[in-house]
Amino acid sequence: MKKYLLHPATFKLDGGAMFGIIPKPLWQKKIIPDDKNRILMSLRVVYLELGERKILIDTGIGDYHSEKFNHQFDIQGKEKPIEALLKEYFQIGGEAITDIILTHLHFDHVGGLGTGENSKELAFPNATIHLHKKHFEYSLKPTVRDQGSFHTHFYLPLIEKYKDKNQIHFLNDDSGVIMQEGDEKIEYVISKGHTPYMIHPIFDKYIYMADLVPMEHHINLPWVMGYDIEPGVTTQFKEQIYKLIMQRNLKMIFEHDHETLYSSLAQDERKSFIAKDSVKAASPVEKLA
Question: What gap in Å lies between CA 215 and CA 259, rounded to an integer?
């Protein structure tokens, strides 16, 4: 399995919202906000080559948004940001992608699915979409609190196109195998709290943390986003998945950390969870060992 991390774009979200109940004097020691209290974040996705398969995990925020939206979130990236990296570094286009694993359907994770005018065309027309069925069902009827994170007007027509082409694979369990080629496989576990049935792909020595631990700064159990619909449940799933990470000695990939690609997990003398052997970002495309 060949493994890469792609950094196609950045955006900004309110620092207070990103750290929930953690006071600003604490979180700003780790990351400095701008004059609007926003913090800079990556839209990091995974690209894998497994046998003949070419796989993406998440698709970033896309380029279909209005000028007002781009300004609000300070989105910085090229047109067709993921396809641009695939072309520059791997000499392939979107049609070469065979599989896309979507951790969940928030706009900054599913936005890159579409392309063309108003992003109504499939950016990756030959891909099979892997998505948890219960999360998809939830996204159609979310709470008033989190409905703004689900841009169904954008992604639902695209998902329907994949359905019509028989190119969607719904996951149904709390854990399992997404795909396997020979002895190598991509597994997953789910978490709840941020959003129901968010999946965390596990491949080789790595686990993609998605929004359970979006940045290295969120490793400490109580450091949970204000965006989470059930923050207390998030902490329970963090602790549960941390046990798996420690047992299997997995490295945690941070989707939104602009500076840190991944780290191992350890505990200090007080038994608090901390990052160990963090690897910093240096290039738009990083090859994993």
Answer: 9
- Looking at residue 18, its pLDDT comes to 98
CB 55 within 8 A of CB 49: yes
- Please determine, for residue 159, whether its predicted confidence score (pLDDT) is greater than 90: yes
Q: Is 81 helix (H, G, I), strand (E, B) or coil?
A: helix
Please tell me what DSSP assigns to residue 126.
T
* Residue 275 and residue 264 in contact, taking contact as beta carbons nearer than 8 Å: yes
User: From the CB of residue 231, how many other CB atoms can be counted at a distance below 10 Å?
Assistant: 16
Domains (ranges, CATH) in the chain?
2-288 (3.60.15.10)
CA dist., res. 252 & res. 27, Å (int): 20
Token reading at 113: 């699915």
- Measuring CA to CA, which residue among 10, 1, 2 is closest to residue 284? 10
In the sheet with 38-42, reading across from the earlier edge strand, the strands are 38-42, 9-14, 76-77
Tell me: the pLDDT tens digits for 105-125?
999 999 999 987 777 899 999
Indicate if the pLDDT at residue 284 is higher than 90.
Answer: yes
Spatial separation of the C-alpha atoms in residues 31 and 38, rounded to whole Å? 10
**Contact yes or no for 164/156 (Cβ under 8 A):** no
Between CA 64 and CA 79 the distance in angstroms is 9
The CA-atom distances, in angstroms, between 160 and each of 61, 97, 111, 120, 163 are: 19, 18, 15, 11, 5
CA dist 154 and 174 (Å) reads: 27
Residue 76 pLDDT exceeds 90: yes
Tokens encoding 251: 């490295």
In tens, the pLDDT along 254-271 reads 999 999 999 999 999 999
Work out the number of other CB atoms within 10 angstroms of the CB of residue 207. Answer: 25
pTM over 0.85: yes
